[in-house]
Amino acid sequence: GLPSELPDLEPGQTPPITTPGPGLAVAEAEADRARASLAEAEAKESASLRRASAVMAAGTLVSRILGLVRSSLLTTAMLGTSLALDTFQAANTLPNVIFNLLSAGVLNAILIPQIVKAMKRSDGGREFVDRLLTVSFVAVIAVTLLATVGSPWLLDLYFSGSAPARELTTFFGFICMPQILFYGLYAILGQVLNARGQFAAFMWSPVLANIIQISGLVWFLVQFGAHGDPASWTPQMIWVVAGTTTLGIAVQGLFLIIPLWRGGFRWRPRWGIRGYGLGAAARLTVWTFSALLIAQLVGIATKKMLSYVRVHHPEVSSISAYDNAFLIFMLPHGLITVSILTALFPRMSAANADGDTAGMRSLVRRGLTAPAVVVVPCSIAMVVLAAPGVQTIWSLQPDQVMPLAGAVAIMGIGLLPFGISTLQQRYCFAREDGRQNLVMQSILSGSQLILASLVLVLPASSALWTVAAAQTISNTIVSIVWILRASREVSGLGMRSVSTLWLRLLAASVISGVPTAAVVWAAGMLGQGRLFSLLTLAAGGIVFVGVFVVVARLMRIGEISELIDPVVRRIHRR
User: Fold this and answer.
1) What is the 3-state secondary structure (H, E, C) of 373-384?
2) pTM
3) Which residues of 377-413 are buried (b: 16+ CB within 10 A; e: fewer)?
4) Which residues touch 31 (CB under 8 Å, ≥6 apart)?
5) What angle, 0 to 180 degrees and rounded to 10, lies between the N-to-C axes of helices 495-526 and 372-384?
6) Which of 308-317, 343-352, 533-542 tops mean pLDDT?
7) Do 468 and 407 touch, CB atoms closer than 8 A?
8) How many helices and strands (H and E) does the chain possess?
9) Taking the CA atoms of the chain, what radius of gyration do you get in angstroms?
10) 376/374 Cα distance (integer angstroms)
C-alpha cells in the first residue's frame, strides 16, 4: 500500500502525506488482535494461578493450624520437651525421612513432568501413565516392607538414648513405619491430580489426618494423662498415640481416590517398562535419588548430633525443640510458597516439553516474586513475634521459651532462601535435569553439614540455634548459585527488578518490625503466661500488618496493592 519510491523534491520541499494502504491497516489490526489475545491469555493464566494457589493455601492453612494444635497436644501429653517426646518424634519422623527419599527421588521429580508429556500423546498417555504408576506403587510397597522390618536398626542410626528410651522408640517405630505406604499413595495420587489441574484435594486431605491424630491425643490425655518418662509407657498408651497417627496418614492417602475417580481417571495395573519411554525417567530417578539421599543423610546426621548433645547435656533443648521450631517455620512456607510452586510446577513442565524458553523464564520469575510478597514480611514478623508465638502454642517453661524462639527467628530469616531452594528443585525436575539438582543439593547439604557440625565444639546451650543458622546460611548459598546458573540457561531472569522488589519488601518489613518489637517488649514487662502471650501475639500482629500496609503503600510497592485491593473492594461491596 506504500509507493515504491518517493517523487523528486525541490530543496526545502516536504514529501506529500500518504495514507497507508489497506494491506498495512490489516496487518496492524491483526497485530493489535494478537497483542490483545496474548494479554487476555496472560490474564487468564495469572487468574488461574491465583485461584489454584488460593485453594491450596486455604487447605494448607487449615492443615497447619490443626498441625500446631496436634503439636501442642503432643507436647502436653509428653510433658514439654521430654525424652519421651524425643522418642516419638524420632520414630514418627523416620518414615518421613525414608518416604522423602522415595517421594522426591522418584515421585515428585518424575510423575508430573512425565505425565504432562504423556498427555500430549494421541491416547492421552493412558498406557504410559498406567505403567509409570504401577512401577511407583510397587516401589513404595517394597520400601515400606523393608523399612518396617529393619526399623530397629534404622532407628539406632537416627536416635541415641537410654535403654527404656530405645525400647519405646522401637515400639513406636514398628507402628509408625507403615506410614510410608500411605505417604506414597498420597504423593502418587496427588501428583496425578496436580498434573490434571486438580489441586484442592491434595492440599485438603491432610486436614483429615490431623483431625484423626488430634482425636487420638485427646483420648490419650483423658485416659492416661501426661507421661514424660519413657519407662512409664504401657503398650496400650503406645498404640493410642502411634496407632491414631498412622491411621490419620492412611486416611490422608486413601481419600485422594475419590476426586480422581470423580474426575474420570482410571488406573489399570500394567507390567513391563521396556520400550515405553521410561528410560529417561529411570535415569532422572538415579540422579534425583542420589540428591535426596545426600539430603536425608545430612538430616539424619544433624538429628544424631542434636540427640548426642542432649544425652550429655539433658538440660538443653534437642530434637523435639528443633522439630517444633521447624513446624512454625514451615507454616508460611507451606501456606504461601508451596501453594504457588505446586501450581507453577505443571506449567513449568509443559513449557519445557514445548521448548518454550520465554515461558519458562516468565514462570521462574513468578516463582521468585509471587511468594516473596508475603514471605518477606512473614520472615521479619517471625523474628519479632517468635517469643510470644512459641509460648502461645506450647505453654513452655520460662527457660524453654528463648531457645525455641531463637531457633524460630533464625529459621525465619531464611524463609525466602528456603523458598528459592524449593523453586530450584521444581525447576530442575521440570527440565528433567537431575544432574544439576544433584550439584545444587550437594552444595546445600555440604555447607549445612559443615555448619551444623559446630554443635560438637560450641557450647551445648547454642546447639539448637547453630543448627537453625546452618539451615538458613546453606539455603542462602545455594539460592545465589542457582539463580546465577538459571539466569544463563533461560537468557536472563531480570534479577535487577526482582532484587529491587525484595529490598523494598525487606525495608517495609523492617520498619514495621520496629514498633512491633516495642509492643512485644512492653508486654513482656507487664506479664507472662500463655493467655498474656496470646494477647501479645495478637496485638503485635495487628501492629505489624497495619504498619506494613501503610509503609508499602507509601513506598508504592504495587504488588502489595494488587494483593490487598481485591480484598478491600470485596469488603466495601459487602
Assistant:
1) HHHHHHHHHHHH
2) 0.73
3) bbbbbbbbbbbbbbbbbbbbeeebbbbbbbbbbbbbb
4) none
5) 30
6) 533-542
7) yes
8) 23, 0
9) 27
10) 6
Residue with cell 515504491: 4
Q: How far apart are CA 500 and CA 506, in angstroms?
A: 10
Mean per-residue pLDDT, 134-141: 84
C-alpha cell at 129: 501413565
Interior angle at CA 205, CA 203 and CA 210, nearest 5 = 110
Sign of the CA dihedral running 505, 506, 508, 513 = positive
pLDDT tens sequence across 107-126: 666 666 777 777 766 666 67
Given a contact cutoff of 8 angstroms between Cβ atoms, the answer to whether 295 and 96 are in contact is no
Mean of pLDDT over the chain: 81
For residue 2, count other CB atoms closer than 10 A to its CB: 11
Q: Quick check: 318 and 81 in contact, CB under 8 A?
A: yes
Instruction: State the Cα–Cα distance between residues 141 and 104, nearest whole angstrom.
Output: 16
Given a contact cutoff of 8 angstroms between Cβ atoms, the answer to whether 519 and 539 are in contact is yes
Query: Residue range 315-334: average pLDDT?
Result: 83
Q: 433 — phi, psi (to 5°)?
A: -110, 80
How many Å apart are CA 2 and CA 8, to the nearest integer?
16
Read off the pLDDT of residues 431-480 as tens digits, 9 standing for 90 and up.
888 899 999 999 999 999 999 999 989 988 889 999 999 999 999 999 99
Helical segments of 13-150, H only: 22-77, 83-102, 108-118, 126-149
More confident residue, 35 or 398: 398
Query: Which 8-state DSSP code applies to residue 337?
Result: I
Backbone angles phi, psi at 412, to 5 degrees: -60, -35
CA-to-CA distance for 308 and 467, rounded, in angstroms? 13
Burial of 453 (0-12, 13-18, 19+ CB in 10 A): middle
